[in-house]
Amino acid sequence: MEMRRVAAALALALSLIFVNLAGQCSGQLQFGFYNGKCKDRNGFQRNVEEIVKQKVKARFSTDTTIVAALLRMQFHDCFVNGCDASILLDVPNGEKTAPPNLSVRGYDFIEEIKTEIENTCPGVVSCADIIVMATRDAVVESDKKSRTGWYPVQTGRRDGRVSSAQNVKLPSPSIPIPQAIATFNSKRLSTIDMVYLLGGGHSVGVAHCGLFQNRLYDFKSTGHPDPTMNTTLLKTLQTLCPQNSGSTNSANLDQDPLKSSSVDKSYYEQIRLGNGILEVDQQLALDSNTRFSVARIAGSNDFSFQFGRAMIKLGAVDVKIDKDGEIRKRCAAVNSPSGNSAGNLFNIFG
Predict the structure, then answer these.
(1) Which of 55, 59, 72, 76 is catalytic?
(2) What is residue 119's predicted lDDT score, i.e. its pLDDT?
(3) In the predicted model, what is the mean pLDDT of the chain?
(4) Rounded CA separation 123/100 (Å)
(5) Binding site, residues?
């Protein structure tokens, strides 16, 4: 009972704080934007967020990896053209084809949610909003034991009409922390936002050998492994990813075996022990710009609250509203001028 009261209090506090901040952080996005706007064919009002929640809950019950997939999708979408679902478009030379996005997945699931909503109240809910809502609900599913993973999401985004691989410029797994900070700052995200977003996003999911093998044998052409890596982890990863093997094996980003599928603060505890898989993760715990924040988060009890705050800010990056975008009928295709989805128009938006 006590845990439930704490969870309820945190959820209420988060809602109140971000209702007050909504105007200054995201323009015309709103909490509860779709309230009263989704009427089914029988004239009954439907709760859009509840539809998304139930779809995510069902998917999570058979595929827990959907959490990492959606977190990655939202980050990769918002960091390019803003949170406009441009990553979902099937266009020649679109964002999907850019090397950093080749391993992004979950497109089919977002389309599945979109189809159900379109069958309920067509032309109302954007694909961009579905990504943000579904990601939040996946985070909640991953951390149900603590009952504190929920955070409110703002909605009212429109879908973009342009998707180009040339626009995909995402931070690399080995980006220096000062450069990473500058990249996040360019999206109006602070250093502490970055620490929470990287930590939350990398508390679930895996990294394949190719993303960290440079740390295992010849780090920065020294002929030696990365000295910041825990030696026990180093031996484990060298076995997993033999030198010059081209292995496609993968390792959990969160090295706590009991926490690797939940979005929580375990990641910060692990990188303080030298158990960061990616170079950027380990450097978060060592760089003077971020190490004190990492230490504080590792010892705190408000990770979910603060992570939710950072996710709301991420979801407000360069959003499109009103005539700046559209409500796609299918997430993979822009609408035709007549309002129908038309795959043969893709080339004019590539």
Answers:
(1) 76
(2) 96
(3) 89
(4) 31
(5) 77, 80, 82, 84, 86, 95, 171, 202, 254, 264
| Percentages (nearest 5) of helix, strand, coil residues in the chain | 50, 5, 45
| Backbone phi, psi, residue 90, to 5° | -90, 90
* Predicted local distance difference test score (pLDDT) of residue 8: 46
Kindly tell me the sign of the dihedral angle through the C-alpha atoms of 339, 340, 346, 350.
positive
Residue ranges making up the domain that contains 89: 2-170+320-349
Which residue bears the tokens 């909503």? 117
Q: Is 224 a catalytic residue?
A: no
Residue-wise pLDDT tens digits, 105-123: 999 999 999 999 999 999 9
Hey, CA dihedral for 265, 271, 273, 276, is it positive or negative?
Answer: positive
Residues 142, 67: contact at Cβ < 8 Å? yes
Residues 331 and 189 in one domain: no
166 lies in the same domain as 200: no
Question: Do 159 and 246 reside in the same domain of the chain?
Answer: no
How does residue 101 score in pLDDT terms, banded at 50, 70 and 90?
very high
